[in-house]
Structure formats: structure tokens, C-alpha cells
Amino acid sequence: MTKTKPILTVTMNPSVDIVYQLDSLKLATTNRVTSVYKTAGGKGLNVSRVLHQLSCPVLATGIIGGNLGEFVTQQLDAIHLAHDFLSTTYPTRNCLAILHDGKQTELLEPGPTLTAAESVHFIQHFANLLPKTQLVCISGSLAQGLPSDYYVKCIQLCREKNIPCLLDCANEALVKVLHSAAKPTLIKPNLSELSQIVHQSFSEDLEKKLIDVLAKPLFAGIEWIVVSLGSEGAFAKHNDHFYRVYIPSIEVRNPVGSGDATVAGLAYGLVQNLSDEKILSLGNACGILNAQENETGKINVQKLAALREQIQVMKIK
Amino acid sequence: MTKTKPILTVTMNPSVDIVYQLDSLKLATTNRVTSVYKTAGGKGLNVSRVLHQLSCPVLATGIIGGNLGEFVTQQLDAIHLAHDFLSTTYPTRNCLAILHDGKQTELLEPGPTLTAAESVHFIQHFANLLPKTQLVCISGSLAQGLPSDYYVKCIQLCREKNIPCLLDCANEALVKVLHSAAKPTLIKPNLSELSQIVHQSFSEDLEKKLIDVLAKPLFAGIEWIVVSLGSEGAFAKHNDHFYRVYIPSIEVRNPVGSGDATVAGLAYGLVQNLSDEKILSLGNACGILNAQENETGKINVQKLAALREQIQVMKIK
């Protein structure tokens, strides 16, 4: 395994995630917080951590800045996870989750606004990392200041080098990719993201509708489309084949990062050249295992084999 | 001025203060914050900044840790304010103020818990700085893990070296000092802190009551006691003399840090050997100027001379 090229994960707008746990949030006064938890956050970093737990070589990249950027890399160093970020002068953001009164109130900072020069510089940095990479996972939103077709450029570079590229993003950044000639190897929209893109609801006759929608020209050339259905499992298209993934019902502790863990499992399955069924069971198993932990981007690898046995992948067409 | 020894300010539990400005804080959902402001916080740092603006040589010390500790020292470096902090492995805290719906909701992290070894180490560090110091300002709460009589030890060291020591703290840390033989040169309780200490209210006949209370044995040996009365000015005792300070009515922008600015002004007056009246007018003027700025620990030095003219210091006894 040690001589294998790593999977490169891309996080363009990472964060230091702060969780405050309070019995009650009192407004208009001072709250003294005794339960404080700070971690390196960002979808690509979650992917990285799960790959790392799967003993898959991984290299994390993206853009960081300031003292909070250093916190991010120190957190990765602490678990011996390789990284090669580009630094910006504007500091990495905090994202705050306050757990209080049985609710979760989030406060998200916007993060750095990149300059045109930094935008160009990161593309060069990314291109330089590609020869050392066997597969790329791009996850999450773009930093401010980057054009919405920025991931199109990243995917073009992967295509030129014939490196598979998984893309997990939403909104305008995803739409730009779908309308471009630069096709990612895999996308993983959830049902509501897909609904938004195709302006269609999936309330009934789910499988038939998904087959019709994913066969549209908009998705042509994308080898893998994995649509996550939450507790209902997943629906997938690989070239001309369609699959339904059934998962066991589980007790969810923290669903945050489950999609990222799924991407990690799918990526790991792809680089191992597993069968379609095994790729899908591995991806979904990682997602479920993440949901069973309190920590985001964490899976209990010991439970992986048994869980995969409980996941059914049915070929539909 | 350059050859003068600096004033040493002590901040045992500094912070990185984050201010989020929102039209409205929506609970149980995600708030995207566009107005984010981060500064080095802590009462001793506010004193330092005001002294620095007064062109008084200052050296900031205390305990810092981790990436947020580095942020604190970088903020001081950026304004060329000298510092010599002791580092702990546990990171410096965030203190968060959310300004929303016309309210201010604060979330304060506890900060590092110091070990017994660190407690001893800082005392040594502090003692090493004293020969380079002409006056010490100790401000704010103790870090967790420190005994409540920790400031007593600091003041003892100042006394041994014959260095004046100003103490601005509350609660148990102040009570321990008052009951010890280590007398600070100056304390600056506000009326409610004083009320708590002496278990007495000051609702009527204010000046007479203050004269009686400050003459109690509890305060014997403390050269200066400056009781801040908010918009009503201040009341002060210097040895056997009592003073009332009358201040002009002003528009308050941000009162946070006004007490610290007052300490800075008093300290600067003391090291310049000014008259009692001038020391008190300088301290109060700095407090007022801080309240007229949005930024904590900031004063408009240009306005200082004119404002001091508007402050009346009346000798009562």
C-alpha cells in the first residue's frame, strides 16, 4: 500500500469548527461555555480522514490562512495525514455550532476572499500535485472570490492527466460543471440537490423517475452518479447500469459528514478496481459508520466488514 | 521617553474576541455571518493598548497558548507593542459576542487550565520581568487552575522590589488580596463590586458612605482606591485625602474597556508623578475616550487635553 499514489482531496474553504454545548442559550446576556470542542472542518477534510482510517494513502490540499489555517494543518499532522495546502494571507474561518435547548444554531463565517492571483496560483498548485495522484476528490463550496466555474478548470486538468475525479458540491458550482465539457468521474447529489438541478420532484415512482432523469443529456459523460437517499439508501448509475442500494436501519448519532464518508468509500472502491456492487456497498457502509459516531469524519473500521454484509445492492437495469 | 522602564501589564486569561454582527440571530438553523471582527482581548491587553497610544513604554505579559495565543501576540506585534508571555500547551480561548436584534449575546470559553508547574513557572517569569519594570498593572480574572490568592503572590513580589502595583480584578481574587498583607498601590472597584465586598449598599448619601467604607481596616495600606461611578464620574481616596471626580455627559459608543482605559490613565499619571488631581483627570479622561470609540482599548489621544479640562476633581477631605 505504501507505494501507491495517494488520493488527493480538495477543500477550497476549510474551517475550524467550534462546537459549544450548553443546556440553554440565554440571549442578551453572557453564557459561560464549559463544553468546547474545536476541530479542522470542511467536507474534503472529512473525506481525507475517512480515507486515512481506511489505510488509503491520502494527500489533502486546498487553501488555508492565518492561525486557524495552522490549526487545520496541525490537526492533520496530529493524525499523520499528509497535506499540501496553499496559504493565503486572509485567515481561515470559524464555523460555530451551538447545541442548546435541544436545538443546533449555526454561525458560519464566510472565510477568505481569494484574489485573482491566488485563484491562478492554486490552479498551478493543484496541477503540480496531479502527477503524484491516482484519484481526486473535490468536496464542498468554493472560497469567495473564485469564479463559479473554478471546478470546471480543476476537472479539465484531471481529464488531461487521465486521473479520475469525484466531485461533491452543490448549487452554481455543480451546475457549471454539468454544463461544461469537463466531466467528473462521479458526482453524488442527494435527492433535493438533484431536484433543484433538474427542476423536478421525486415524490413518487422514485426509481423510474431517477432512471429517466439520470439518462438526460445533462448527465451524459459522467461515469458514476450516486444519488443519496438518506435512510432509504442510495440510487446509482454506472455508465448504462442502474443500481438500488438498500441499507439496514441504524441509530443515527451525528449524520454530519456522512456524505463525505460515502465519497471516501466510493473513492477507495474505485482505486481498488472493485465491482460496482462492492464500490457501492463500501461507500454506503462508510456513510453509515460515520453517522454512528459523534465525531464528524470518523468511522469504526472494525465494523466495516459486517456492515457491508447487511447492505444490498440490486441491479435494476 | 525611550529610556524609561516600561509599565508591565498582566493578563492571565487573554482571549481572541470574536464579534459577529447580524440583523437577527435565527435559532435552530444556520446563520451566515458577513460581519466578522477578531481581536486580541483581555483587560490587561486593553490597558496595554491605551498606554501604548499614550506613548508610554509598555510590556504585556500573561499566559497564552496555541494558535489563538499566536494570534494575540501577532496583534500586538502589528502595533509594535512589546510582549513577553509565558506559553502553555493548552490553547488560548475565544470569547464570542453576537450583536443581533439590538441585543448582545456573549459566549465565553473558560480558557486554559494551568498546571501547578505552570503556576510556579509564571511566578518566576513575572519575577524575572520586574527588574525591567517601573509599575505593574494586573487586570482581569485568573486562569483556571490558579489558586485564588495568586495575585497576592504577584503583589508580594512587587512590594519586595518596591514597584507600584495596580490591581483591577473582582470577586475572590480581590477579596484574597484585601485580606492579605500584600497591599497593591491602587485598586479600582466599581460601586457594585465595592458593595459586594463590604456587604453594604450605596443608594443614598454616597460620598459620606464611601468615606466611611474606604476608611475601614480592610482597605488600610492601599494607597489609592478609585471607585468608578459610571456616568457619575468617580470617587477616590489617596492616603488620607478624598476626591470626587465629575465628568461631562458624553455619548457612549462602546463602554467595554473603559475601566481598563481608566487604569491605563491612572498608571501613566502615577509614573509621571502628577498631582492627585491630574492623575484622576487623566484616568477618567482615558476611560471616557475609550467609551467614545467603537473599538475596545482605543482612545483618541487628540481629544485628551480638551477633555481633561472638562473633568473636575474636587477635594472633599
UniProtKB/TrEMBL annotation, chains A, B:
Pfam families xref list: PfkB (PF00294)
Transmembrane portions of the chain: none
Domain of life of the native organism: Bacteria
Catalytic activity, as annotated: D-tagatofuranose 6-phosphate + ATP = D-tagatofuranose 1,6-bisphosphate + ADP + H(+)
Sequence ranges assigned to domain Carbohydrate kinase PfkB in this UniProt record: 11-298
Entry's family note: Belongs to the carbohydrate kinase PfkB family. LacC subfamily.
Enzyme Commission (EC) number: 2.7.1.144
Taxonomy of the source species: Bacteria, Bacillati, Bacillota, Bacilli, Lactobacillales
CC per GO annotation: cytosol
Annotated PROSITE patterns: PFKB_KINASES_1 (PS00583), PFKB_KINASES_2 (PS00584)
Family matches, as InterPro entries: Carboh/pur_kinase_PfkB_CS (IPR002173), LacC (IPR005926), PfkB_dom (IPR011611), Ribokinase-like (IPR029056), Tagatose/fructose_Pkinase (IPR017583)
Entry keyword annotation includes Nucleotide-binding: yes
GO molecular function: ATP binding; phosphofructokinase activity; tagatose-6-phosphate kinase activity
GO biological process, one term: D-tagatose 6-phosphate catabolic process
Organism of origin: Enterococcus columbae DSM 7374 = ATCC 51263
Pathway linked to the protein: Carbohydrate metabolism; D-tagatose 6-phosphate degradation; D-glyceraldehyde 3-phosphate and glycerone phosphate from D-tagatose 6-phosphate: step 1/2
Protein name as it appears in the record: Tagatose-6-phosphate kinase
Entry keywords, A to Z: ATP-binding, Kinase, Lactose metabolism, Nucleotide-binding, Transferase
